[in-house]
């Protein structure tokens, strides 16, 4: 519950403050969000399975977003930006899917 | 540091995480890994980070590995706030970008309209200047006998080349595709679900027949024909002078309507079109028009003429 409130506070903050994202950072926002979603679902699944660990959660969030953004940035420098971006999104999507499936099994299955 | 999930498979699930469960693994040879897609859709690929941390915790405290984790730690809260902010900011960026794109599009449309209007104005100016040139030429040529002769020859040549508008009584012949209703006209003319269509050679035959019957000037759907105008088809459309026409096709032939009709009536062109009408139900009709105005054809582009050297006289 507190976690949900925290999430909502974040959304409200973002909408209210309307921070100006620098131009060079804008293309990496969507990737960062997908990576953050992956960390969220991973954390949620771990919570449901009883193995949640705060340190792992925070580190996974930071690691995912930074690494995803870095991979796409590297790809942009090398000229394969869109392909690498697609690859990152696919892999993160698969992980999100896996975590959601685990959550589903926990909630509705066994 | 949590490593990104190894897509090859989970390896050893350590600790109390959800292991390979279910009947899916039962019949498998030991040592093979769960296939990626099969595994993920059954929820069998947990993040090893959490499992390893739980195992470490169990070793350290010596107690049960399972422990309801705290979802209210400071770090967790911070991460969640950050995520919410990220999502809100990205969503706002997308919304903010939309009006800019729409604005750009509408500006392009405005520019298109402005340029088209400019072109139209230029074309009108061209027509005006051309008319004025014609007037001055006529006035200059009228001043001497030789000039008047030249003017007559010029007028005849212009009429033959359709370089000047013409008007008068006319015979209007209409051709149209067969109505779509029935499929009872067999033959290669049939389209898939439509009736028979008018082909370009039908129009060609009609126009040639009208010339042969003595028409002075001919226009199709308002487009004047010269001696070299092409009537062709491209796909399903008929093009006159490389401009597409829409049906019905009205061919206006200037001349005495009665004489034209009599001369045209028994000709090969008329017979052929009648046959088309009977067999394929192509619409074919004629009527008189007491006053038809035909515009001039586009000016011919001279291919061999070169401008005179020196000032004109």
Automatic annotation (TrEMBL), chain A:
GO cellular component terms given for this protein: plasma membrane
Keywords: Cell membrane, Membrane, Transmembrane, Transmembrane helix
Signal peptide: none
Subcellular location: Cell membrane
Membrane topology, record value: Multi-pass membrane protein
Main location: membrane
Transmembrane spans: 27-44, 56-74, 80-98
InterPro entries (alphabetical): DUF1290 (IPR009709)
Family that this chain belongs to: Belongs to the sbp family.
Protein name per Swiss-Prot or TrEMBL: Small basic protein
UniProt source species: Actinomadura hallensis
Source organism phylogeny: Bacteria, Bacillati, Actinomycetota, Actinomycetes, Streptosporangiales
